[in-house]
């Protein structure tokens, strides 16, 4: 008995040691990003990347926040788009997935095929652009940043994998009690689907938060520029000026302009808020992702 306990203890220690090492491999890059963003650019070129900066400097953040009004406006646009888009996408995705998961619905297989077909094939960028700009006329509005990602086939099938595990007898019992389809969905299906909703909702939030592609295609107003597109534009300007300085195409002094430190500062500004949000959904995220993987 004692030998068995010792074997379990050794196994547990080794298991926790491996997980601790793996966690360090995940945490150290984040520490490096924050450290580099707080390092002086000249010190970075002399001493390289360090976990503890040789010379602390906030110049990279001062450079990014040179126009604080635009940064705050872009943050506001991204937060608004992420909040509205995630809620709308989660609602539509869950309703579509619920329809596909109902085995007693005759068109469930047809709808599943249509959704799967759109995941494999698409019409291309040009027809999509014409549809948004020429027919819907929603360019330079928040709608063009929200509507294209409302239905994502991968999220639909992930949600379907969870909802398909709900017993059909539960829905039939609700029907016998006089419950309508909408009432059954919102008062019975939704409350027991929290793990899947949290998982898909997190995917939707990450997708909206990290997107810059739609803003580059359809947004021309600075007041509607999302955060990721603004940071992408700043980074392109820094890269262009740095390359022009090295080739001698410009004569202005940009030697003090941050390059690597600015990149890391933008990573912190872009990813920081989502790093704080993720731990609150971690429990539901793991459960929902596991169920979706098994039942999909």
From TrEMBL:
SUPFAM superfamilies: MetI-like. GO terms for cellular component: plasma membrane. Residues 75-258 form the ABC transmembrane type-1 domain. Gene3D superfamilies: MetI-like. CDD domains: TM_PBP2. Keywords: Cell membrane, Membrane, Sugar transport, Transmembrane, Transmembrane helix, Transport. The chain crosses the membrane at residues 12-34, 75-98, 110-132, 138-163, 184-209, 264-281. One of its GO terms (biological process) is transmembrane transport. Its main location: membrane. The keyword Protein transport does not apply. It is a multi-pass membrane protein. It is found in: Cell membrane. Belongs to the binding-protein-dependent transport system permease family. This is ABC-type sugar transport system, permease component. It comes from Ruminiclostridium cellobioparum subsp. termitidis CT1112.
């Amino acid at each position: 008995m004692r030998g068995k306990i010792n074997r379990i203890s050794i196994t547990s220690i080794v298991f926790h040691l491996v997980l601790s090492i793996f966690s360090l491999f995940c945490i150290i890059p984040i520490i490096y990003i924050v450290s580099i963003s707080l390092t002086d650019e000249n010190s970075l070129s002399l001493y390289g990347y360090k976990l503890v900066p040789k010379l602390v400097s906030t110049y990279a953040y001062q450079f990014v926040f040179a126009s604080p009004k635009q940064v705050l406006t872009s943050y506001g646009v991204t937060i608004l788009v992420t909040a509205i888009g995630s809620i709308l996408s989660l609602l539509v995705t869950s309703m579509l997935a619920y329809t596909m998961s109902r085995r007693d619905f005759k068109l469930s297989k047809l709808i599943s095929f249509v959704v799967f077909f759109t995941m494999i094939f698409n019409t291309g960028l040009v027809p999509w652009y014409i549809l948004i700009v020429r027919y819907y006329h929603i360019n330079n509005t928040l709608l063009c940043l929200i509507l294209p990602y409302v239905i994502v086939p991968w999220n639909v099938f992930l949600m379907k994998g969870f909802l398909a595990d709900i017993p059909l007898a539960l829905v039939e019992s609700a029907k016998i009690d006089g419950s309508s389809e909408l009432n059954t969905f919102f008062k019975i299906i939704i409350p027991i689907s929290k793990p899947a909703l949290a998982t898909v909702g997190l995917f939707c939030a990450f997708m909206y938060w990290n997107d810059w592609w739609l803003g580059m295609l359809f947004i021309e107003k600075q007041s509607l520029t999302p955060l990721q597109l603004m940071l992408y534009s700043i980074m392109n300007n820094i890269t262009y000026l740095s390359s022009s300085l090295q080739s001698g195409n410009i004569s202005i002094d940009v030697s003090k302009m941050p390059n690597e430190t600015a990149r890391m500062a933008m990573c912190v500004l872009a990813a920081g808020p989502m790093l704080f949000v993720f731990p609150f959904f971690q429990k539901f995220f793991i459960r929902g992702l596991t169920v979706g993987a098994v039942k999909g």
